[in-house]
Amino acid sequence: MRTLMTAMVMGMLAGCSLPASVVPGEPNFSKYSAKPPKELAACVLPAWQKEVSKTTQTGISNGYRITAPGMISADETLDIVKNKDGSRVSLYQGPPWAKSGALREAVRDCL
Questions:
Q1: Number of domains forming the structure of the chain
Q2: Is 108's pLDDT higher than 50?
């Protein structure tokens, strides 16, 4: 019985730490830029890698996804997609206590 209860608790806790890229929901931060996606990604990626060395970039439909792995909870993910006049950026971050202000600031600096 004790083993079953432990397994149930661990399963519930694991559900709390799903990466944002799996179920992004609404972005914490969304802005538009006149810069094309390639230029924005080239600016954001090195800034994020400076903060979180294992940050990666992948190509997605009409743009790029930059992901900084979370140390404790969800990853921080930035989607940069082509928009008619440039790019739309959407930043998905974890819970308030796990958000990185430095990563958000890097996005703002690159816009």
A1: 1
A2: yes
Give the number of other CB atoms < 10 A from CB of residue 96: 7
Query: How far is Cα 89 from Cα 78, in angstroms, rounded to an integer?
Result: 7
Strands 63-68 and 56-60: antiparallel
Residues of the chain with pLDDT > 70, as a percent, come to: 73
Asked if residues 66 and 77 have their Cβ atoms less than 8 Å apart, the reply is yes
- Tell me, yes or no, whether 41 lies in a domain: yes
The residue type of 109 is: D
Q: Which amino acid is at 33?
A: S
The Cα 21–Cα 7 span in angstroms is 25
User: How far, in Å, CA of 24 to CA of 75, rounded?
Assistant: 10
| Structural domain for 92, as ranges | 19-110
What's the whole-model pTM score?
Answer: 0.75
- Amino acid at residue number 9: V
3-state secondary structure of 75: coil
